[in-house]
Amino acid sequence: MNKLNGLLLTGGRSTRMGQDKSQLAYHGKPQREHLTDLLRPYCQDVFWSVNADQAADLAGTDQLLILDAFDWPGPLNGILSAFRQEPAAAWFVVACDMPLLTTRSFDALINGRDPAKPATVFFDSDGLLPEPLLGIYEPAFGPIIDRAVQGGEFSPRRLLQHYDVQLLSVPDRRELTNVNDPAARTRLGF
């Protein structure tokens, strides 16, 4: 199997939340640090996918960073930027706005991984579509993203729907809960 790197997607604009979602504390420390700690046992290296403003704020940190290489929003920017940095690696991608994630979901992805397919992901919380923000993207997915972006496609979910990817049932659908605004955070009790 290829080298497996972790990629924590933190580069979003967080406009609905009104503050950087990766810095919200759900478990006694910023979410980006909590998820990095969860990812480390599974990956050779763990990178934070960051936008230019975040990169400037993190100058001098020991944390490995991947700066968004493109001037368009969305998680596909971070994923493609990671493949541009290390095209031969597989990437264990995790969004920073899933505060209920545990190693139970990570274990299920690792155990269900099929490296012969371009990606291994869960069905989303509705159990119908692929969940692109938590999954393992194999090196074969890099060229797929390149072609898609050149053709004007920027939705990782649609890409996953068009290819023969490994789709798994998540052990606990609650772990896929995205928190994108203050009301959602309050509903979870944080």
Automatic annotation (TrEMBL):
<keyword id="KW-0460">Magnesium</keyword>
<dbReference type="Pfam" id="PF12804">
    <property type="entry name" value="NTP_transf_3"/>
</dbReference>
<feature type="domain" description="MobA-like NTP transferase">
    <location>
        <begin position="6"/>
        <end position="163"/>
    </location>
</feature>
<feature type="compositionally biased region" description="Polar residues">
    <location>
        <begin position="12"/>
        <end position="22"/>
    </location>
</feature>
<dbReference type="InterPro" id="IPR013482">
    <property type="entry name" value="Molybde_CF_guanTrfase"/>
</dbReference>
<keyword id="KW-0547">Nucleotide-binding</keyword>
<keyword id="KW-0963">Cytoplasm</keyword>
<feature type="binding site">
    <location>
        <position position="97"/>
    </location>
    <ligand>
        <name>Mg(2+)</name>
    </ligand>
</feature>
<keyword id="KW-0479">Metal-binding</keyword>
<feature type="binding site">
    <location>
        <position position="97"/>
    </location>
    <ligand>
        <name>GTP</name>
    </ligand>
</feature>
<feature type="region of interest" description="Disordered">
    <location>
        <begin position="1"/>
        <end position="25"/>
    </location>
</feature>
<comment type="similarity">
    <text>Belongs to the MobA family.</text>
</comment>
<feature type="binding site">
    <location>
        <position position="21"/>
    </location>
    <ligand>
        <name>GTP</name>
    </ligand>
</feature>
<keyword id="KW-0501">Molybdenum cofactor biosynthesis</keyword>
<feature type="binding site">
    <location>
        <begin position="9"/>
        <end position="11"/>
    </location>
    <ligand>
        <name>GTP</name>
    </ligand>
</feature>
<comment type="function">
    <text>Transfers a GMP moiety from GTP to Mo-molybdopterin (Mo-MPT) cofactor (Moco or molybdenum cofactor) to form Mo-molybdopterin guanine dinucleotide (Mo-MGD) cofactor.</text>
</comment>
<keyword id="KW-0808">Transferase</keyword>
<dbReference type="InterPro" id="IPR029044">
    <property type="entry name" value="Nucleotide-diphossugar_trans"/>
</dbReference>
<dbReference type="InterPro" id="IPR025877">
    <property type="entry name" value="MobA-like_NTP_Trfase"/>
</dbReference>
<feature type="binding site">
    <location>
        <position position="68"/>
    </location>
    <ligand>
        <name>GTP</name>
    </ligand>
</feature>
<keyword id="KW-0342">GTP-binding</keyword>
<protein>
    <recommendedName>
        <fullName>Probable molybdenum cofactor guanylyltransferase</fullName>
        <ecNumber>2.7.7.77</ecNumber>
    </recommendedName>
</protein>
